[in-house]
TrEMBL record:
Domain of life: Bacteria
Any one GO molecular-function label of the UniProt entry: DNA-binding transcription factor activity
Record key words, sorted: DNA-binding
Annotated region of DNA binding: 31-50
InterPro entries to which the protein is assigned, alphabetical: Homeodomain-like_sf (IPR009057), HTH-type_TetR-like_transc_reg (IPR050109), HTH_TetR (IPR001647), Tet_transcr_reg_TetR-rel_C_sf (IPR036271), TetR_C_16 (IPR041678)
Name under which the protein is recorded: TetR family transcriptional regulator
Chain ranges of the HTH tetR-type domain: 8-68
Amino acid sequence: MAESRGTPGSRQAIMRSAADLFAELGYRNASLRAIAADAGCDPALIGHYFSSKEALYDAVVAETVRPAEVFREAVGRRDPDAAEWLLRHAVTDWGDPVQRRRILGVLRSALDLPAARERLSQSLVPEGVAGADEVRLALISSLLVGVMTSRHMGLLPPELTKDGDSTELVRALAPAVAAFLAAGPAGGACPDSGE
């Protein structure tokens, strides 16, 4: 029997089920009823914790992708290790098959539906970031999405991800990310970079 009142684990169960079903079916095809059934709760409980399917998706994106805080700190750092620091934090979840599947599900949903794409885009650039920093983060996000997709498709050289270790991948990507962190919209130094 489906749970009609929330328990301490209900919200997390809904989030896990939503993340899994968005990954498996895409945003459009993952119904609230299916999410509730998978979570073992009444569909009305989703409305209790989340006002809509869109709000549930936003919560899944925020928990699954989590780039905003990492990007904000990386842009604020002006040291030579900022790129490697950002990459280590950004690719941490990629080694976990469940988390990787969920991240790919978020990306799949973003390809499937313009509204989901907009929500993902908003989550990738922290609030209050604009100008050259926004361009930097958009470029870094694009690079990471491409690398993750390539990794999932088996297109990356195996030595970059041997045994689930991302050390070599981080080293290989660091120069490109460092260039994005230092470059402005036209590829030159940003006005605020001190160069």
